[in-house]
User: Fold this.
Amino acid sequence: MPEAAAVKVSKTSVQKALVLLRKLALLNGELRLQRETEQVYIPLTRTPTADELKELKANLPTLEMSKRKSFESAKQPARLSDLLSGKIPSHVLASLPHAIDFIGDIAVVEIPPELEPYKQDIGEAILKAHKRVKTVLSKCGAVSGVYRLRDFEVVSGETRTLTVHREYGCVFHVDTAKAYFSPRLSYEHARIASLVQEGETVIDMFAGVGPFSILIAKKHTTTHVYGIDVNPEAYILLKKNVVANRVIDKVTPILGDTRQVINERLSEVADRVIMNLPEKAIEYVDVACKALKPKGGIIHYYEFVNQPEPIETAKSRLAESIKQTNRELYKILHTRIVRGVAPFTHQVVVDAKVK
Assistant:
């Protein structure tokens, strides 16, 4: 194993440290990070100068220089097409899935019909290319139902759907078969958490296992989040994750229909409302408005749009829905296309200030 100078940071500071080390051209991208219980060692290309170390310490007060350590090489995983060459006919190799979702040590893929006879070979190739993966699941159908679930088939590895996923210093117990979770929303989880202000009350209307709620609570000292979900299995995992991340005093998990919960106990309490139910969020805009404090607040609205101008469509639909309530759309703060979910269909987010 090659040796390199290193810095030691807490697990919660890794992302910030990586950004800063890249900026200073100190990050050794050819070597893997070395993780311990609560600390992470990051390999450097060289020892920082006095000025560089001063800047690092100013931004990361708990950062420590470490003696040279041995690190594993960060080799790129082998390409699936190379691993499957000779096992799958060349004329269908082009249909290999390019997108793989990694949830903890589970890999989730969508295998097209023409590759169904070779799904086990594909699964074995994924296990070989990604050493940390223990289970490969194939999607069977679309997300559907009140609980936003989809069916999966285990094509290789251990027969299970339960795993532990880590994101921005948070730990999430996830069961892909029993509760909705998407690692593709990682950036959105962090973006929203960074916008929340100290002292706010936040309602996460469709909390799932808690990726928005828990990251917000971890980042803020005096903020309180109500995480609501109608799925009993998601609620169980949410409670488990609240304990695992030590935010039991800052996140209140609630099992129930979000409309009923807000009407009965959370009316006019929120500074900020998260509406991550893109299939049906439009139907709950009136409830989100009711949840906001009398002075108003901010709504983070998500929607699936299959129109030529997805952002303008989402803004228009949200504005019209708010107009039907006793609230007023004051300002659109931010919009973005979160991801493509199907041909000509996008998930869009609109951050709106409502008064």
Observations:
- The chain has a mean pLDDT of 92.
